[in-house]
């Protein structure tokens, strides 16, 4: 192996180990039975709720981030979430302009990235205009045995996340607060886009290799009666 190739391998390993996502790594499983929505129904307040995403280039460098819009319902019984269903508008993908510098991207803008994410390279929004998350289980977070980047985590939420035509069950810590008229849910977790077959180009394509497989999701959901 020549010196140049050795240096290239070392550089790749170093890049892959630096930076990157900072959410709780979501645990994944096969599709599970959706929880029965028992009790009172709370509707997501779209004006005060947010779904934020962040993707990275290989090694965690040069992140891109933005928002998505969602609507849905949460069911509550005895001051605890029993179930819920959320629809994510994939056409609402909006990249924050501050995360894209046209000087370093060859003139590419946030709007260009939006188009790239929406077309057949990734989400194919014309064919798959929505994604869906359906709660399958909500259990207490055990601070003695479990860790989370989220201060004050109260629960672990599991649900079937469907993107395009693939459904994967994901579990992540969350901070949940329930009052008589409102439910709030906060979480910061990381998924692997390839669990849903989201690749850029064909398998092994250099274009796809340059993009981190990890995507951070930050949820700030408020639902009201």
Automatic annotation (TrEMBL):
Q: Is-annotated flag, keyword Signal?
A: yes
Which first-to-last residue range defines the signal peptide?
1-26
**Keyword match Signal:** yes
Limits of the Lipid/polyisoprenoid-binding YceI-like domain? 41-224
Q: Tell me the Gene3D superfamilies matching this sequence.
A: Lipid/polyisoprenoid-binding, YceI-like
Which residue spans traverse the membrane? none
Q: Which UniProt keywords apply?
A: Signal
Q: What is this protein called?
A: Polyisoprenoid-binding protein YceI
Species the sequence originates in: Myroides guanonis
């Amino acid at each position: 192996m020549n010196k140049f190739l050795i240096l290239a391998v070392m550089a790749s390993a170093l890049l892959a180990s630096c930076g990157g996502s900072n959410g709780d790594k979501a645990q994944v499983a096969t599709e599970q039975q959706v929880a029965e929505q028992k009790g009172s129904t709370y509707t997501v307040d779209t004006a005060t709720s947010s779904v934020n995403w962040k993707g990275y280039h290989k090694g965690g460098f040069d992140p891109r981030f933005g928002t998505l819009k969602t609507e849905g319902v949460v069911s509550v019984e005895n001051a605890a979430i029993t179930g819920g269903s959320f629809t994510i508008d994939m056409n609402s993908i909006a990249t924050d302009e501050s995360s894209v510098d046209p000087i370093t991207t060859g003139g590419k803008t946030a709007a260009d990235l939006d188009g790239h994410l929406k077309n057949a390279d990734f989400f194919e929004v014309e064919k798959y205009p929505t994604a869906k998350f359906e709660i399958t289980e909500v259990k207490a977070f055990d601070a003695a045995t479990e860790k989370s980047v989220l201060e004050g985590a109260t629960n672990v939420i599991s649900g079937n996340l469907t993107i395009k035509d693939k459904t994967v069950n994901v579990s992540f810590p969350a901070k949940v607060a329930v009052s008589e008229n409102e439910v709030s849910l906060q979480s910061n977790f990381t998924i692997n886009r390839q669990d849903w077959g989201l690749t850029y180009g064909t398998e092994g394509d250099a274009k796809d290799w340059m993009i981190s497989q990890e995507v951070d999701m930050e949820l700030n959901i408020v639902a009201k009666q």
